[in-house]
Amino acid sequence: MSLIVQKYGGSSVADAAGIKRVAARIVETQQAGNQVVAVVSAMGDTTDELLDLAAEITDQAPAREMDILLSAGERMSMSLLAMAIDAAGASAQSFTGSQAGMFTDSLHGQARIIDVSPNRVKSALDRGHIAIVAGFQGMSPESKDITTMGRGGSDTTAVALAAALKADVCEIYTDVDGVYSADPRVVSSARKIDEITSEEMLEMAASGSKILHLRCVEYARRFGVPIHVRSSFSHHEGTWVIPDPNDTIHLEEGQPMEQPIVAGVAHDRSEAKVTVAGVPDIPGKAAAIFNVIADSNANIDMIVQNVSRLESGVTDITFTVPLSEGPAALEALRAHQEEIGFQDLELDKEIGKISLVGAGMRSNPGISAKFFGALRDAGVNSELISTSEIRISVVTRESMLDDAVRAVHTAFGLDTDVEATVYGGTGR
Amino acid sequence: MSLIVQKYGGSSVADAAGIKRVAARIVETQQAGNQVVAVVSAMGDTTDELLDLAAEITDQAPAREMDILLSAGERMSMSLLAMAIDAAGASAQSFTGSQAGMFTDSLHGQARIIDVSPNRVKSALDRGHIAIVAGFQGMSPESKDITTMGRGGSDTTAVALAAALKADVCEIYTDVDGVYSADPRVVSSARKIDEITSEEMLEMAASGSKILHLRCVEYARRFGVPIHVRSSFSHHEGTWVIPDPNDTIHLEEGQPMEQPIVAGVAHDRSEAKVTVAGVPDIPGKAAAIFNVIADSNANIDMIVQNVSRLESGVTDITFTVPLSEGPAALEALRAHQEEIGFQDLELDKEIGKISLVGAGMRSNPGISAKFFGALRDAGVNSELISTSEIRISVVTRESMLDDAVRAVHTAFGLDTDVEATVYGGTGR
User: Fold this and answer.
1) What is its EC number (chains A, B) (predicted)?
2) Best of A48, A58, A98, A146 to disrupt the B interface by mutation (most B CBs within 10 Å)?
């Protein structure tokens, strides 16, 4: 008998029909001889509606109270789902974050998990129940207050529970059939990935792939939880995210799987490029700049220092930050212009980032050559380059990004003629 | 400095505007130098909307899950109210039933309070906060599950908190200015009662007065909590419900108040009359009948045994039960007709009950005479009569009920020419 943790997003439980459909699927999984824990998000737009309500009251809601308000969303969906399971002939008990032992720090709105002790969930399973757990929320043992975990919270709840319960798999149900070798909306010939390593999935997520949130992949990798990303609208096999590349969990015993050289192509339109021009080319200036940025709480992604302009004794430093954080970063730098002594600042919002990800890169020379060759042939100019052991990323003009993604996807033989299926929006 | 517990029903916090209005009132109360605990119900129709959602899923929702679903309503209103208070410049913390230490038995949907230990509420007050507490809900220490307390739950929450915190007063905010000597919708000349004893209020509630729920008055009386029933739409003094008739809490020191002979006239349309005809007039038959009713969980109010018909050796036994429970009671009796040996059964739904309530009755002879005189003059025929030390109740035709109430109200000099004010619906 396997223990399966399933996570259903808000779009899967948007209305009574959706809740019944999900309930049927959960019961089916139990009747196939498994123990089932289902982590559920708030119904459809509930969270937005609650935020609107709060906005009618104040635009500076105390974080503690906002978390209490938002946590009501999962309490509704989880109890309704338990009712639907009961009506479908199985028995279920729903648990809030604190009842499920999801203990977090007290950073309201973006709490991090510090401990998971799902005793009540365990005993519910032992008594033959299906356990429903509210995603996205926890409790701070320090303040005894309700907390919420921010974006990707429900996915993280599911993976954390799977780790604590030593579940065989954590199934993340979403509105696509799995992880694709590129965004099907950009590359119609994108292929569904059957298996990808957590390491690769991390790079994909960090490079703009929206399907799984970085935090949940990190957590799954750290605790060795296999994730199966699949659609709640179909029964197709989805994508297995494997912590240990030597496992081939979704395949029959003794049927090893060939590790493809590259996993996929990710792209990201959410960043802006900041150039600090005319920085005195003397030690400590870069440090000074990035201290200022750090104080402005902007998250820097790529950094490039241009070669010093001969004789001038000055250099340019360029980096990327999330679009939303660009203005704050610029403001912070201007405030320290004298002390740092740079000549000029420039914010460029028209950039896009393309990344090629694959564990096979380590052992395969010539990947970069092929990558840049593909970009060149597509007439794509690269403005910034950064690499990891298993990733190459290039910043280019946003207008060129889609061409770039398609060109690289084709160049690495990732194209397929199987049509990708996209069903709807996703929950939190 | 006084400690004041205030309870606001769903109609007072139906929307953002209402929540802000209530917040302003609470802040005002604190700024007048008091510590304030506000118990709040779910917003307007939230509870009905949640029930509709559940009905879309199943018509047999497990009670445990239904309580989790319904309890979400107060979590929204309480956090929004705390936000509004914060926006109004004061500081508030909201607490769920379990956080506020409202411990109940595990009878989901109609849980009874078994213990109240509001430590977190106390410390919030000590730190200068206003404490908001979710009404209607608690937690069973036995099952660790969320429970709800059924009709009048939020009033009971407020009174129980007031008792545990030794509050100076429990203010119940509603949509009328207080308790009236009769239902203003029936008797336009009804007068607002300034002060009434818990004992009288109990009889009024038991006799059909809807303004305070029986449970909360019982609780207030047992623990000596003075209740001030008033409107959240005005600042008028409301009605004080005094546990000890020797207190005159709302008056200046040393200014005793004259106890009126009668407090008011209550009426009730919610009952039906059951007649068991031709019951063998031998010992034990009545017991047999009421055992059967008890097993059917019907709540009997009035009972009359007619004098035995001479020679016939049979008698009739008549009693009243809530309309909704009438059919079940009849069914139960029919199932035991042979064993009890009665001849016939009759259910009469067209009845109404009028009750005259007043602690002064004890010491004043002639009250009954005046009461029945008034009914006679109004042409009202009485079918059943029951009395307590401070109450006379009569069952009559429902069609005659309003006339009866007006006649008795006038006969006891309760009429006033001050117009009663009714503002809207009430919450739970």
Assistant:
1) 2.7.2.4
2) A58
Tell me which residue in A57, A64, A76 faces B72 most closely, judged by beta carbons.
Answer: A76
Q: Which residue has the tokens 């109360």?
A: B29
pLDDT in tens, B292-309: 988 887 888 888 877 666
Residue A249: how many other CB atoms lie within 10 Å: 14
Strands of A145-148's sheet in order across:
A113-116, A102-104, A137-140, A145-148
Is some CB atom of chain B closer than 8 A to the CB atom of A24? no
Find, in chain A, the residue whose alpha carbon is nearest to that of B90. Answer: A62
How many interchain CB pairs under 8 A, A with B?
A: 108
Do residues B259 and B359 touch, judged by C-beta distance below 8 A? yes
Nearest one of A336, A218, A322, A354 to A276, comparing CA atoms? A336
Count, residues in chain A = 428
Give the DSSP letter string of B119-144: HHHHHHHHTTPEEEEESSEEEETTTT
A61 touches chain B (CB under 8 A): yes
pLDDT at A369 over 70: yes
- Mutation target for A interface from B48, B79, B119: give the one with most A CBs within 10 A: B79
**C-alpha to C-alpha distance for A140 and B402, rounded to whole angstroms:** 57
High-pLDDT (> 90) share of chain A, %: 68
Q: Any chain B CB within 8 A of the CB of A417? A: no
Among B61, B75, B120, select the one facing A83 at the smallest CB separation. Answer: B61
Question: Residue B246: its pLDDT value, please?
Answer: 62
Interface of A with B in 136-165 (CB under 8 A): 144
Q: Which of A68, A6, A17, A27 lies closest to B75 in space, CA to CA?
A: A68
Instruction: Point out the residue among B78, B80, B82 whose CB comes nearest to the CB of A53.
Output: B80
pLDDT at A158 exceeding the cut of 50: yes
* Rounded-to-5 percentages of helix, strand, coil across chain A: 35, 25, 40
Confidence of residue A256 (pLDDT cuts 50, 70, 90): very low
Residue B259, amino acid: Q
Question: Is residue B426's pLDDT more than 50?
Answer: no
- Give the predicted TM-score (pTM) of the model: 0.83
In this predicted structure, the answer to whether residue B147 has a pLDDT above a threshold of 90 is yes
Subunit contact B94:A68, Cβ cutoff 8 A: yes
Among residues B215, B89, B85, which one has the least CA distance to residue B160?
B215
A129 in contact with B, Cβ within 8 Å: no
> Residues near B146 by Cβ (< 8 Å), separated by ≥ 6?
B67, B68, B71, B97, B98, B137, B138, B139
Q: Look up residue B379 and give its amino acid.
A: G
Say if CB A7 and CB A170 are below 8 A apart. Answer: yes
C-beta atoms of B83 and A94 within 8 A: no
Q: Which amino acid is at B86?
A: D
Given this model, what pLDDT does residue B245 score?
65
CB contact under 8 A, B64 and A93: yes
